[in-house]
Amino acid sequence: MNSTEAVAHILKRLGNKPAVIATGFICRQAQAAAARPENFYMIGSMGMASSIGLGAALARPKQPVVVVDGDGAVLMNLGHLPMAGSFKPKNFYHIVVDNGRYESTGGQATISKDVKIEMIAKASGYKSAVGVATEAALKSALAKLFKSPGPAMLVVRVKPEKGEAPPRVTDSPEEITRKFSAALRNGK
Amino acid sequence: MKWTSVHQDNAKRFAGALKAHGFDFYTGVPCSLLGALLEHIASDKAMPYYPAVREDAAFGLAAGAYMAGKKPAVLIQNSGLGYSLNVLTSLNLIYKIPVLAVVTWRGHGPDAPEHIVMGASCIKLMEDVGISVAAPDTAADLENALRQGVHVTNIQKKPFALFIKRGIFGQ
Questions:
Q1: DSSP string covering A120-144, please?
Q2: Would B73 disulfide with which of B35, B83, B100, B136, CB 3.0-4.6 Å?
Q3: Are A80 and B86 inside 8 Å of each other by CB?
Q4: Mind listing the domains of chain B with CATH numbers?
Q5: Is residue A73 within 8 Å of residue A112, measured between CB atoms?
Q6: Strand ranges (DSSP E) for chain B?
Q7: Which CATH number is associated with domain A3-185?
Q8: Rounded to the nearest 5°, which phi and psi values hold at A176?
């Protein structure tokens, strides 16, 4: 399974749950898979998707909030994991698409092949944290994920995408804020 | 600790003003110059506070809380503005996500060596990237500065930095 396929599976499973999507190709893949108003596409501040999602989850405890992160982004803001583990929002779901690369800057390696991100999450206080590497395992893990209490993590190990990059995010940052805020404020 | 009843009175008044303006989500990384204010917040249920691991993460939490309908304030030391600059410039400013930053001004006047460089530049640094600031001299000027911050965050949907000098909430 490559990252495009994994992101498409994940987006298909989100329903109308608000999701903060990490800077880089993940955002572009998510937009191509399902351009939902509930998607907060990040174009800067790499590493912050998890903290933004956590802030939203804390502010709206009844609204499930999802973060679709990348391995490089998680490693950049690793301090986020103990915050989520310590604040313990039941409605916080953290999916990490791990392709082992900084894809949008040319495919340079991250250090994720040597790091078990789900074990750091577990040690940081996440209620559950699992890793999957096949499409079948991803589908079954996604089916379970939103039925479990958060903070919960799902690491999806994928092969790097070999094809063309999907188009850049089309909405302006201001428009993204407007849509995502409306999705959150009109939600649970 | 190092704060006196004067610091505590200032903290109580300022906390009241923050609540009156609707601030209902607090996060940050402590500084001794915020001592009495942080002590007050810890004892006030109407001021939920989430300890961030680093200042940039505090701005991240605040951004999410804002979009979910809260009115966030971030309480930090100016040393944390360095870590936070990328978030302020490539998240808050371009996505129009406002936040009130209450920032202690270490290095304003004699201070430890690590505070000298940022102390001399922090106001200019904020202004250079387009973030308005206020740096009230006394506790009496705090509420005016806060009103200015509320105006900027509400109307312009931008971050605002309210600098806190030594002696107001701690020594």
A1: HHHHTT-SEEEEE-SHHHHHHHHHH
A2: B100
A3: no
A4: 21-164 (3.40.50.970)
A5: no
A6: 25-28, 49-51, 72-77, 99-104, 132-134, 159-164
A7: 3.40.50.970
A8: -60, -45
Radius of gyration of chain B (CA): 14
Q: Identify the CA nearest to A94 among candidates A54, A60, A47.
A: A54
Q: Is the dihedral of CA B71, B76, B81, B85 positive or negative?
A: negative
**Model pTM score:** 0.97
Residues B11-24 pLDDT 10s = 999 999 999 999 99
A128 interface with B at CB cutoff 8 Å:
no
Residue A73 exposure: Cα atoms within 13 Å on the Cβ side: 33
Residues of chain A with Cβ-Cβ distance to B94 below 8 Å are: 43-44, 173-174
Phi, psi of A17 (to 5 degrees): -75, 130
| pLDDT per position as a tens digit, B51-84 | 999 999 999 999 999 999 999 999 999 999 999 9
**A57 close to A63: Cβ distance less than 8 angstroms:** yes
Instruction: Delimit the domains of chain A by residue range.
Output: 3-185
Residue with tokens 């490693």: A75
B87 to chain A, closest Cα gap in Å: 5
Query: Other CB atoms closer than 10 Å to residue B30's CB: what's the count?
Result: 14
Q: Quick check: bond before A149 cis, omega within 30? A: no
pLDDT band at B164 (very low <50, low <70, confident <90, very high): very high
Chain A, 17 to 56: residues with Cβ < 8 Å from chain B are: 20, 40, 42-45, 47-48, 50-56
Query: Using the beta-carbon criterion (under 8 Å), do B60 and A55 form an inter-chain contact?
Result: yes
CB contact under 8 A, B61 and A55: yes
Q: With the C-alpha atoms ordered B155, B58, A59, B168, is the resulting torsion angle positive or negative?
A: negative
Rounded Cα distance between B156 and B132, Å, is: 11
Q: Which of B60, B72, B94 sits opposite A173 (nearest CB)?
A: B94
